[in-house]
Automatic annotation (TrEMBL):
One of its GO terms (molecular function) is carboxylic ester hydrolase activity. Keywords: Hydrolase, Serine esterase, Signal. The keyword Transcription regulation does not apply. The lineage of its organism: Bacteria, Pseudomonadati, Bacteroidota, Cytophagia, Cytophagales. The keyword Transmembrane helix does not apply. This is 4-O-methyl-glucuronoyl methylesterase-like domain-containing protein.
Length: 421
């Protein structure tokens, strides 16, 4: 387990190498990408063209099955009884700026499973239901805010021995460690709520983590299309949405799925499957997210499946050395969000996630948005750094490393103001 985690950290921190080679010889040279042929987004598996919205709805259902069978695994169709328990309400959080609520989501039929603990901030000044950004965090709710009264998570955490995690348990030094990724003040001042939960509440992020997560009771580990952790985290986002639909302070028709890195992959898969999400934001989601799998640049399908064998369906590994045989590619995943608004974002210091591949993934959704009379990106030109482009589909390539910054959030808030509110 430790070997996988250390490898993951090295990958995420790595940047471009001057000679065009990434970690252990992986390609960072655009001249070495080579040629590839993408599956035609508007031609189904029977070779029939997709010409109308009705055609797309039928083809969309088939694409979802193809992604479930070959990439993310089959999300169990079984409904799960939930119980929502509000554990805390602070009517004057963040110096009176917000109302803060903590809610636990229990699985009624599976009392052995821990709940999903959701942390929500609402604009205190709002007099009507508000739209909400819903995203999972990497280190517990205590890490997204410096507030001392947020309970320290007792769940499994990355890192066996460090300042912020001891024997895979959070320490007090973890409190507020990722405040920079969650500018709560900025979000609520703009009239939005923020809902977040620790992704480890749904499934701990290591190969055996499924033993204590939702996949221990749902799914079938013997099947090649058994869902992976990405699928479980996406499923968990929909269960949080189930709660948000019951909260009178939330406008349930304007819930935005957002995620960074591996959770960016989950946020897109959640938004593709669950059309209740009003919009989707994928921040540096890379391989298995917004980046085209067939592009030989940065992280590859093989490296992804080797470093993180628990994230995807077992069948996905069959394509490690034959990516061209995949029946789908990521532009088709992103197109499943249509006609809803979509934002894909990259960082120029995060070449491992393949910024151009992410841009192209967003670009190639255009034909589906056109079926709905909408313009997607509306450009084929890869933009300059810090120059957002697009219309119903947006994209930017920010300066900096693999992270979520205030710059990113400024773009997402503007995107939501224009397309979701």
């Amino acid at each position: 387990m430790t070997r996988f985690l250390l490898l993951a950290i090295l990958i995420l921190l790595s940047g471009p190498i001057a000679n065009g080679q990434g970690p252990e010889g992986y390609n960072y040279d655009e001249a070495k990408v080579g040629t590839y042929t993408l599956p035609d987004l508007l031609v189904n598996t029977k070779g029939k063209p997709v010409k109308t919205k009705a055609d797309w709805r039928n083809w969309r259902a088939e694409l979802l099955k193809l992604f479930a069978e070959n990439v993310y695994g089959q999300t169990p169709a079984k409904s799960v009884k939930l119980r929502f328990q509000t554990t805390s309400v602070d009517e004057s959080a963040l110096n009176g700026l917000a109302v803060r609520k903590q809610v636990s989501i229990f699985f009624v039929d599976y009392p052995q499973l821990p709940p999903i603990d959701v942390l929500i901030y609402f604009p205190k000044a709002s007099t009507k239901p508000v739209p909400v950004f819903l995203g999972l965090n990497f280190c517990g709710n205590h890490c997204v805010t410096a507030e001392a009264d947020i309970p320290l998570s007792t769940r499994w955490m990355m890192g066996e021995n460090s300042d912020v995690s001891n024997n895979n348990k959070a320490t007090e030094k973890a409190r507020g460690m990722q405040v920079r990724r969650w500018p709560i003040d900025m979000i609520v001042k703009r009239g939005y709520a923020l809902a977040t939960a620790y992704y480890g509440d749904i499934e701990p992020d290591y190969p055996q983590g499924w033993h204590t997560g939702i996949r221990s009771v749902l799914g079938d580990t013997t099947k090649a299309n058994n869902w992976g952790a990405i699928g479980a985290w996406a499923w968990g986002m929909s269960r949080i949405l189930d709660y948000l639909q019951t909260d009178p302070a939330i406008d349930a028709k304007r819930v935005i799925s957002i995620g960074h890195s591996r959770i960016g992959k989950a946020a897109v898969w959640a938004g593709a499957q669950d059309e209740r999400f009003a919009a989707v934001i994928a921040n540096e989601s890379g391989e298995g997210g917004a980046a085209l799998a067939r592009r030989y640049y940065g992280e590859t399908v093989e490296r992804l499946n080797t470093s993180f064998p628990h994230w995807f369906a077992p069948r996905y590994k069959a394509y490690n050395k034959r990516v061209a045989d995949l029946p789908v590619d990521q532009h088709e995943l992103l197109a499943l969000v249509a006609p809803r608004p979509l934002y894909v974002a990259s960082a120029d210091g995060d070449q491992w996630s393949d910024p151009k591949g992410e841009f192209l993934g967003a670009l190639h959704t255009e034909p589906v948005y056109q079926l709905y009379g909408k313009t997607g990106l509306g450009t084929t030109v890869f933009p300059a750094v810090n120059q957002p482009v697009g219309q119903t589909v947006r994209y930017h390539d920010r300066t900096g490393k693999h992270d979520v910054t205030d710059y990113d959030w400024e773009q997402y808030l503007r995107f939501a103001d224009e397309l979701v509110r």
